[in-house]
Inverse folding.
């Protein structure tokens, strides 16, 4: 369990890193570090859990099924993704880490 | 509902500011901005809800009932406060805002 959100930023930029900050029944809080990764074309996340995300460093763009416009997330921007809402990560910032906090319940 | 965690930092430093980022049944995510405020001597929070907190800017010190040592929170440090655990804010950074994110459920 990661003790500090900004600690131990992985040096391997070839993949995203997922670390729990909290994991109790019904609530999981996760740090995600992206390095330019995005969802493959045509791939959609479809989750049974509600998810709230915030970008704290870097930037990201979300695509939501059925919406014409993308959701741009700069540091401090957050977004609520209710269970079942299909979504994908259209982009994360290239060349620097994007740090997300994700609350799943 | 506040759209960005780092936006609209209140200029009134005479009191703490509390703003929801999310409020859905069973989950509330709140930004707290402190300017050196702390809990009055002898005051304890005692909550029916679980709370997870993280400090993102500034610093804070928590006191938990029954523990001899204080919990020091620097940016990125987080802490889980289960329902019923009496606690107080022993200090927040003077002269600059301390930005907390608090997840209540």
């Amino acid at each position: 369990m990661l003790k500090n959100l900004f600690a131990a930023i992985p040096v391997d930029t070839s993949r995203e890193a997922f670390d729990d900050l909290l994991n109790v029944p019904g609530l999981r809080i996760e740090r995600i570090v992206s390095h330019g990764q995005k969802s493959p074309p045509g791939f959609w996340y479809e989750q049974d859990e509600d998810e709230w995300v915030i970008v704290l460093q870097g930037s990201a763009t979300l695509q939501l099924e059925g919406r014409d416009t993308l959701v741009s997330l700069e540091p401090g921007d957050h977004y609520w993704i209710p269970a079942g809402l299909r979504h994908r990560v259209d982009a994360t910032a290239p060349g620097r880490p994007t740090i997300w906090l994700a609350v799943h319940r």
